Amino acid sequence: MDGSRSGRRDAPALVAAEREGSLDLRVDVGVLVAHAPETDPDRLRSFAARAAEDVVEELASATDVSWRFYLEDPARLTDNDRRRPSEFLDRATHRMVEGPYDLVVVVTDVPLVSSRDRFVPGLASPLSRVAVVSTRNLRSAPRGEPRRSLEQDAVRWNAATLLVHLVGHVLGARHRGADGGVMEPFQFDPERRGVPPIDADVERYLHRIAEEIPATDARPRGRLARLAFHARSAVRNPGRILRALVHSRAPLLPLSLPKLSTAALTPTLVIVFSAESWDVGFHMGNVTAALFAAVSVLVAALYLLFVQNLSFPRKRHRVVTEHTALVNVTVLLILLLAMVGLFVLVGAIILVIELVVFPPNLMSNWPSLEDPAVGLVDLVRTGAFISTIGVLSGALAGGLENRIIVSHLTLFPDRP
């Protein structure tokens, strides 16, 4: 970050590593250790500090900017359970704002799993500029052999390679072919004794975006000012948000949240057999039905965002960074698309019931119908009305925990 931001640091954390670059810019990286209850935090902090020392020169030479790694106080986890990287977002964004930092690296010793429940050594989120490294995978050994220790050279240099690889992803670099460079898909190499070189094309790319690395931040006063800063951040970075939305597969999110889907579908299975709901659906205009559905989907998304406290960081701060603003905008859009997906899912089930289960002439004989002819448009409109009620009930009565929702936001890719 630039000099003005470094002057705001009230209580500097321990500088784990630093390297000066040729450009008058500096990237501040916060290193957060999140350890299991029985783990010695000092040992894990030493490992994280050594990894920072191993990578700082490589990053500085590739970008021509100065890099400084700050070692934060360790955070004790509640248990040894496996975690998705998105579960560390709350701690990471909190430290990013308090630092303030341009990037945050989380080092943990609990198992790390991707959105597809695959064990991975680490993952990075370019949108939030957060990388998570798990030593559990790095220390694993072939069957019949003891687990590797953090002090072994293989663990040390694979961790350094993985860290450079993830930071490259954070800065927008993509996987390269199997050319031996640091941006090729990461695989643990027991014979590794150094950090592979950064590919020339990747180095030129990192050098080109060097001036964009320091994070933009602001001190908005009031809710409207914060909202305006979030909107400006989204307008400046539409591509990053769009890539995150495409990767998230947000409309399919309800399929991995059974409580939400159940809470939405259960009341609709009762309402669909209610004569009153059919009267309302048949006599409702198409425009009214569409507006009711759109407003309900938006209200359901906002309800989950604010009531479940899904904005980052959870604690209020005077400083808001562009990265946290982009994460918040993306989370809202993911929830909005998830509610659209839930609406389509419930609506499709209701439409199948209308077309297959109900007798074809049942509704046409109802005395409340002015026109006894019941067409497909009438069925779709009535199904949309009923599914809209399901979306609202799903958001209001889903009983979802924050951790469950956050772990499925898929702001991180599936592989390192």
TrEMBL record:
Keyword Transmembrane listed: yes
Membrane-spanning intervals of the chain: 252-275, 287-306, 326-359, 379-400
UniProt entry tagged with the keyword RNA-binding: no
Single Gene Ontology MF annotation: metallopeptidase activity
Matching InterPro entries: MetalloPept_cat_dom_sf
UniProt KW keywords: Membrane, Transmembrane, Transmembrane helix
Secretion signal span: none
Listed name of the protein: Uncharacterized protein
